[in-house]
Specification:
Layout lengths: L2 H4 L7 E2 L4 H11 L3 H13 L3 H4 L6 E15 L6 E12 L4 E6 L11 E5 L12 H9 L8 H8 L7 H16 L4 E3 L2 H13 L10 E4 L2 E4 L4 E9 L4 E4 L4 H4 L2 E3 L8 E2 L4 E5 L7 E11 L6 E4 L6 E6 L2 E11 L6 E8 L4 E8 L5 E5 L2 E5 L4 E7 L5 E8 L4 E7 L5 H5 L10 E2 L20 H30 L1
Helix pairs in contact: 2-11, 5-7, 7-8
Length: 477
């Protein structure tokens, strides 16, 4: 249970020098009982983030740690801080491996954190005008360019360029654009590579998802073909699976002519075939494929673990889902949501397949969608805070969305340039769990309570110790 906080990558493990004593008291005092009860409340919240952020599909993976790296130095008013800088590895659910660099230098990467592929607009990259330059760096450096002698020659690097140097230099160049920080690689060869990459970078377009279904939700009447749902992918072939209860519900996945579909390719259109006597319900189809994930795709976490950006991919399993809702009468909207970091919120889209207007309430306002039309409403949300809201419509329609909005880098959240940041700074290389500031590792909403409880427990513990000693002295007398 404590591993989520104790095994942070040195790449961005955080400490707060002015609050170290309190932090250590909290970590040491609470580990025996409070971690199970209180800290996991943050984990439970994080597990609910799938509602809005996973609307696109693609690869899902677990971070395994920093594998190839060197050292870098972040220069700030409080002094220089050393951090690890380099290449992470992730294992893909269903098979495959990914290599990534991290974005948001002041946020920790938590060991075993779950990540999912997402659009740039679902991360801090969505509002970063230099995101395209980061993709150029990824495509023109290690590991995409694995001939290190050729890379060193192109970059004008003097001396031998090792894999560790190449990974560190690439990460440093990315941080300069993702976080706008004053950071240098420790090794001279790595620093020369970073300077070359930073100066040479050019804007490149965002890569499309490895696999997605558009739209992610459709609706209609029983007896109809609901759709179309269009497959978008770079994979040669996609396996399409019907709903889990298809054998009993009679729902089929078919083409426009009503013929069964089990495989698809890029641009294929599939439909939900709903029996005429099917009671009102909602089901999902699943599309799955094996392909390489495009370099430059972003990966976000369910928890407050720093955003990753893809540097390399083996053939990996990718998947996407789409839902269908139907009813004999009344409103039959198709409602979906996805994070919109450019606007600082979540886009909720309602498509109306009914022959009458659909009215729904959201964020204390009412909206109407005319028959055959759709409408997108952006719900503004607080940064780095969990959200929980419900779309309510006519005929008792309800759909709930929960999650955590993580759209800005840590430096951008504070509104203070990292050069003069007086708060949390990266811990020295090789820091331990007691150096970690819980407020910066995903538990910010409960941190004051944690610290307050820790202080109270320490005071109580000290009082108990004094009483015990007095009793012992009395017994000896």
């Amino acid at each position: 249970m404590f591993a989520a906080f104790s095994a942070l990558s040195a790449c961005s493990a955080l400490s707060a020098p002015r609050r170290t004593t309190v932090t250590r008291l909290a970590a040491g005092t609470l580990v025996s009982g409070f971690v199970a009860a209180g800290v996991l409340a943050g984990a439970g919240t994080a597990a609910a983030t799938a509602g809005a952020a996973r609307g696109e599909g693609g690869a899902a993976a677990t971070v395994e740690g920093l594998k190839t790296y060197g050292e870098a130095v972040i220069q700030g008013a409080a002094g220089d801080q050393r951090v690890s800088a380099g290449l992470f590895e992730m294992s893909v659910e269903g098979g495959g491996m990914l290599q990534t660099y991290c974005v948001d230098i002041h946020t920790p990467t938590q060991t075993d954190a779950k990540y999912y592929e997402t659009a740039w607009n679902g991360t801090s990259l969505g509002a970063n005008e230099d995101a395209g330059r980061i993709r150029w760096i990824l495509r023109n450096s290690y590991p995409q360019v694995n001939d290190l002698a050729a890379l060193a020659n192109r970059a004008g690097v003097r001396g031998q360029l090792t894999e560790q140097d190449a990974a560190a230099g690439t990460q440093v160049a990315i941080w300069r654009y993702s976080d706008d920080v004053d950071v240098d690689a420790v090794d001279p060869q790595a620093e020369q590579l970073a300077d070359y990459l930073e100066k040479s970078a050019r804007n490149q377009p965002e890569p499309r998802a490895s696999l997605t279904l558009e739209p992610p939700a459709v609706s209609g009447r029983p007896g109809e073909l609901l759709g179309p749902v269009t497959v978008r992918t770079d994979a040669d072939s996609v396996t399409v699976s019907p709903p889990a209860d298809a054998a009993t519900s009679g729902v089929r996945i078919v083409d426009r002519d009503g013929e069964p579909v089990t495989t698809a390719t890029d641009g294929s259109e599939v439909f939900f075939g709903i029996p005429e006597d099917a009671p009102a319900d909602t089901v999902e189809l699943t599309a799955q494929a094996s392909t390489t994930v495009p370099v430059g795709r972003a990966f976000a976490s369910d928890s407050r673990s720093q955003t990753q950006i893809l540097a390399g991919s083996s053939t990996s399993t990718v998947s996407a889902t789409a839902s269908a809702t139907w009813a004999e009468q009344g409103a039959i909207p198709a409602v979906s949501a996805r994070t919109n970091c450019a606007e600082g919120g979540v886009d909720v889209t309602a498509a109306n397949q009914d022959d009458e207007p659909f009215t729904f309430a959201l964020a204390e306002r009412e909206y109407t969608v005319e028959p055959g039309e759709s409408r997108t409403v952006t719900v503004p949300l607080a940064e780095d805070r969990t959200y929980d809201f419900t779309v309510r419509g006519s005929d008792g329609f309800e759909k709930r969305f929960t999650g955590l909005l993580d759209c800005r880098t840590r430096a951008a959240e504070t509104g203070v340039d990292v050069h003069t940041l007086g708060g949390p700074t990266p811990a020295p290389l090789g820091g331990t769990a007691t150096d970690v500031n819980l407020a910066e590792t995903g538990a910010s909403g409960i941190t004051p309570w944690i610290v307050g409880t820790a202080i109270t427990l320490v005071v109580l513990g000290g009082t108990a110790l004094v009483i015990a000693r007095r009793r012992e002295t009395t017994r000896e007398s």
